[in-house]
Structure prediction request, 92 residues.
Amino acid sequence: MRKLWALALAMVLLVGIGAAMASEQVKVTGKIKAVMATERMFTLEDGTQLWVAEGLEAEKLQKLQEGKVVKASYEEREGKKVVVDFEVSEPE
Prediction:
């Protein structure tokens, strides 16, 4: 019976760790090189490609323009870097 409990506890911990890793957000800052509005995607000067998550306001998406600086938080989803929040500013 103890082995069964130990196995159940291990499974719960593994599922919890996997879920935490799946939703971990990464922050990135860079200058926008290109914007593909129809695909909700933009590329930074270093080649990083980011897709904007559904549900972010259209007004905010219009701020994504070539040459501007973006600070973004993204999550890895199905092999893509999906932006869940971002701020856009003028380059210095």
